[in-house]
Backbone:
């Protein structure tokens, strides 16, 4: 994954620029100044890419709808603690921790946490967020976290937004087993996004040719660890790891019902919502 001089992923800066562009609450407080430049640059490139692959969805709207859909599920979860792993420059923690009854823990790698802390320290609003007793920035790696051991004392939601596509199936499963133990113990919730290859928009013939040249000639394979599992197979894996009930939602299908911002713009990000075994009809009714 490409990083800047502060060892922060460029993708995290683009995503932060998206939240700032969409004027999400607290986005201005947590977003670094260089995000706007990266946001503009990537969008110029995407104009060309979408001409090459016209069925591709708008990336900024994909990210915006993903983020807002996760907010919706968290709001309706009934959880009083949230653990967001790979938080990046997400403004979610700053927003949800405004409620003193909600504990919010953000976890990321050391350079990312240090950068976000400096960003918050740079304004009076950010300093006030850092001073909240129910808001915590933590250094951690999802590959070594023991969720059930560290967070099992209250009803907890776990969020891994924009993360699971970087891990292979073999890497995902121990992570999911650890989170499932916590979700089962606390009647909590696990929410993440993952788009199976079978649901990615098809490339044009010229797009396929460029992709073949990039992967097989230039040997640039990218960071994502996608495989051939479809949505049902991923849900089966989640259940085998200990989640009793798994639902998946396409942002294209729920954008208007959940009142996502810019809902008239089509997107297709798949959001998975995982809980312990319960009455499926009762769970589904919560999201209507």
Residues:
């Amino acid at each position: 994954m490409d990083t800047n001089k502060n060892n922060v992923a460029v993708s995290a800066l683009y995503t932060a620029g998206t939240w700032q562009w969409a004027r999400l609450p607290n986005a201005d407080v947590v977003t670094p100044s260089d995000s706007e430049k990266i946001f503009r640059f990537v969008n110029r490139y995407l104009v060309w890419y979408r001409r090459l692959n016209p069925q591709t969805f708008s990336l900024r709207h994909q990210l915006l709808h993903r983020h807002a859909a996760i907010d919706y599920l968290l709001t309706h979860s009934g959880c009083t603690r949230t653990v967001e792993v790979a938080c990046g420059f997400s403004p979610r923690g700053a927003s949800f921790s405004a409620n003193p009854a909600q504990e919010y823990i953000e976890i990321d790698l050391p350079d990312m946490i240090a950068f976000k802390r400096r960003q918050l320290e740079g304004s009076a609003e950010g300093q006030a967020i850092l001073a909240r007793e129910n808001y915590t920035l933590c250094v951690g790696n999802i590959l070594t976290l023991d969720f059930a051991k560290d967070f099992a004392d209250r009803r907890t939601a776990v969020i891994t937004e924009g993360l699971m596509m970087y891990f292979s199936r073999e890497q995902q499963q121990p992570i999911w087993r650890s989170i499932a133990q916590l979700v089962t113990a606390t009647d909590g919730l696990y929410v993440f996004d993952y788009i199976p290859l079978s649901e990615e928009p098809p490339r044009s013939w010229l797009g396929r040719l460029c992709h073949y040249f990039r992967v097989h000639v230039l040997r640039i394979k990218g960071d994502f660890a996608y495989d051939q599992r479809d949505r049902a197979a991923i849900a089966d894996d989640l259940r085998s790891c200990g989640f009793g009930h798994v639902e998946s939602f396409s942002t294209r299908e729920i954008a208007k019902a959940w009142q996502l911002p810019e809902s008239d713009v089509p997107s297709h990000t798949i959001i998975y919502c995982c809980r312990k075994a319960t009455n499926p009809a009762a769970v589904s009714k919560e999201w209507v």
In short: Residues 55-79+181-288 form one domain. The first strand starts at residue 81 and ends at 85.
